[in-house]
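Lecture notes, continued. The same structure-token format from the folding unit now serves as the input rather than the output. Read the line below as a description of shape only.
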């Protein structure tokens, strides 16, 4: 199993902070944001990790993360994404690294408190695609699970729905088998010119190879000033026992 952290993009919602460095290197309490998704992978038993980054501050990752010694890794791999082609396009940068293995993909601005070790273990017996959800108050901001009228099956995944069919948002954590890269090559750009991860996941759904797991602990998407402050406050309070 390989681990991939997607840490590209320009972080325009966090300007002027991101004029100085990549969004994923901004601090969340006492460590850079990207430390958290890497630690999620390491805690799940994944030893081979790649960081996919891009933009003018990509070199900052090497200065901060080096070879991954902080996480007990023997080596940390890097790939560079030209432009902003979407999550699926960023994932395609890791094709050679992953090879015939399965992979766990975490967005670099997502902080996930749950231990995902059991999900990684379960996936090795199922393959296909596993996505993770969290119940949220504002599902219209995310890709949302639409459930079948009868039973607990997944009918569809709808990106930023005006009328959300549920409150279960798909978060930035995915597990894929090696067919993910051939699927990405068959994707067409969306209206905003990107290869959308929702379209990728729907391909697995149509094949009957998509499984949904729910996150019960803390999940934070740190892409805005408010969420950045919320995350810092949470980890400060947890450390101080408040």
């Amino acid at each position: 199993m390989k681990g991939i952290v997607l840490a590209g993009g320009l972080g325009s919602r966090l300007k002027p902070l991101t004029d100085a460095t990549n969004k994923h290197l901004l601090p969340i309490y006492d460590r850079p944001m990207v430390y958290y998704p890497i630690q999620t992978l390491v805690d799940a038993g994944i030893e081979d990790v790649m960081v996919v980054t891009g933009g003018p501050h990509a070199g900052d990752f090497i200065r901060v993360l080096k070879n991954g010694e902080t996480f007990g890794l023997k080596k940390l791999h890097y790939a560079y994404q030209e432009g902003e082609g979407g999550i699926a396009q960023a994932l395609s940068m890791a094709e050679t690294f992953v090879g015939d293995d399965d992979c766990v993909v975490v967005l670099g601005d997502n902080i996930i408190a749950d231990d995902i070790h059991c999900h990684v273990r379960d996936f090795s017996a199922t393959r296909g695609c596993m996505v993770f959800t969290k119940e949220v108050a504002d599902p219209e901001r995310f890709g949302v699970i639409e459930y079948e009228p009868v039973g607990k099956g997944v009918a569809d995944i709808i990106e930023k729905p005006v009328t959300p069919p549920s409150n279960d948002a798909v978060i930035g954590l995915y597990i894929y088998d090696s067919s993910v890269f051939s699927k990405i090559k068959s994707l067409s750009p969306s209206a905003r010119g990107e290869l959308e991860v929702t379209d990728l996941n729907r391909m697995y759904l149509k094949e009957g190879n998509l499984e949904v797991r729910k996150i019960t602990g803390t999940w934070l998407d740190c892409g805005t000033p408010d969420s950045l402050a919320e995350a810092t406050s949470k980890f400060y309070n947890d450390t101080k026992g408040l």
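Point for the exam: The first strand starts at residue 2 and ends at 7.
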